[in-house]
Amino acid sequence: GINGFGRIGRLVLRAAVEKGAQVVAINDPFIGLDYMVYLFKYDSTHGRFKGTVDIQDGFLVVNGNKIAVFSERDPKAIPWGKAGAEYVVEPTGVFTTTEKASAHLEGGAKKVIISAPSADAPMFVCGVNLEAYDPSYKVISNASCTTN
């Protein structure tokens, strides 16, 4: 799942689609579904999305894959588990501590990846310290969305 469909959230979805990872849910309380479609289709840096993007029965549909869309402000209220999201990327820049990001676990996520530096979550940088990752970690940071 992706919490926040701003610039980084949209790029996470693009990367997931390109790599074949399944995104089952997106939460953003500030962007409506119609605008999500528009913003995802057209990117001033990366160009137009080459696949299909539609709305069907309240879902965002990307290349035929239905993605549940929620508009919760409180991460505890996002039904990640019911949507089938095991991992949640947290790119809002709001929930950057372990305590705040752990709220996603209450919604049913199993792991949370913060896309910003964190004051207390273990941080990992590709090519630097990934070998230090411990699968028991529930909340981690990728240090900075511009680093990885």
UniProtKB/TrEMBL annotation:
Q: Write out the catalysed reaction.
A: D-glyceraldehyde 3-phosphate + phosphate + NAD(+) = (2R)-3-phospho-glyceroyl phosphate + NADH + H(+)
* UniProt EC number: 1.2.1.12
Q: Which residues cross the membrane?
A: none
Q: SMART domains under this entry?
A: Gp_dh_N
Principal EC category: oxidoreductase
Q: Which Gene3D superfamilies match?
A: NAD(P)-binding Rossmann-like Domain
Please report the stretch or stretches of sequence annotated as the Glyceraldehyde 3-phosphate dehydrogenase NAD(P) binding domain.
1-145
Q: Which GO terms describe its cellular component?
A: cytosol
Q: In which pathway does it act?
A: Carbohydrate degradation; glycolysis; pyruvate from D-glyceraldehyde 3-phosphate: step 1/5
Q: What is an example of a GO molecular function annotated in this UniProt entry?
A: NAD binding
Pfam families named in the record: Gp_dh_N
Instruction: Answer whether the UniProt record assigns the keyword Oxidoreductase to this protein.
Output: yes
Q: Which InterPro entries does its entry note?
A: GlycerAld/Erythrose_P_DH, GlycerAld_3-P_DH_NAD(P)-bd, NAD(P)-bd_dom_sf
Q: Which UniProt keywords apply?
A: Glycolysis, Oxidoreductase
Q: Which GO terms describe its biological process?
A: glycolytic process
Subunit-structure text: Homotetramer.
Family, according to the entry, reads as follows: Belongs to the glyceraldehyde-3-phosphate dehydrogenase family.
The name this protein carries in UniProt is glyceraldehyde-3-phosphate dehydrogenase (phosphorylating)
